[in-house]
Structure formats: C-alpha cells, structure tokens
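Lab notes, practical 5.
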Amino acid sequence: MFLVSSCLCGNKCRYDGSIVDPKSHPTVWDLIQKGQVVPVCPEVLGGLPVPRSPAEISGGTGSSVLEGKARVVNRAGQEVTENYCMGSKRGLVIGLQTGCNAAILKSRSPACGLGLIYDGTFSGNTIEGDGVFAALLKTYGFKVFSEENFGLTNKYGAEGGI
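Output from the prediction step:
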C-alpha cells in the first residue's frame, strides 16, 4: 500500500481548489486501479480549507519546520506551521495504521514536496529540500517518491518504485 497525495488521486484538495487528473500520472493511476493507494492531504488533515491561500516554507525546509527552526506562512502573511505539522502527523498515523511503507507525494508542495520546494518568497523559485510531510515520513523509514520520479528508471537502471 502507498500513501499518495490526495490531489494526485483526483480529489479536490489543492490550495486553489483545482483537480489533478489522476490519469495524467499513469503509474499512480495504475496503483489506484489496483486498490493500492491510501489518499492523504496533510493540509486538509491539519484543518486548512479548500480553497486556501498558497503557503511556502520560510527560513528552511520541512525538516527545519519539524525542528522548530522554520515556519510555514501563507501568501496573506498568516503562519500555518501548526496546521502543517498536525496534518503531517495525522497523515503519518494513517500510513502506519494502513500498513503503508512508501508514499508518492506532490512535487514542490510545502507539505509533500520531495527534493525541491518553493523558497518561501512566492516568486516561483525553488530550493533543495523536502516538505513537512515528506520529511516526517522519511524519519519514520518510509520510501518517499514524487509523482515525477515514481516508476521512472534512473541512470543506474533501478526503478523509482518498489
């Protein structure tokens, strides 16, 4: 079983209320069809509405947020760090309770981003690092992928999936 960002499953939970067609990511779609997906949205699990003001991590990465060294702020200037931390913890519990040991998460998100996240300036620039949920899952030993790298063969011939 895979934890999967709920927006990648076609659920209306993105910050702007838009829907991602799950068929646009064939490997994720295949897992959905096989019933191997547990959809989660850390932002919604943390009590944030749909739609909501976009948010970015200010002063670091998801790991920094979990350590209390950075915060998550929305475009309106409101701090939503607690929402992101609480939602990520709730998502982790769902993953553990359903027997998941891997996750496929939405790239560049302040919660789900893997490897690259927006830099906190709302300018579209990215920095290296993970979102809050991705960082938390990694600390609990989950294998974490983005929708962009899951199922792809890397330069060493290894699958980006399990």
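Observations recorded by the TA: The longest helix spans residues 81-97. The helical segments are 26-33, 42-45, 62-66, 81-97, 132-139.
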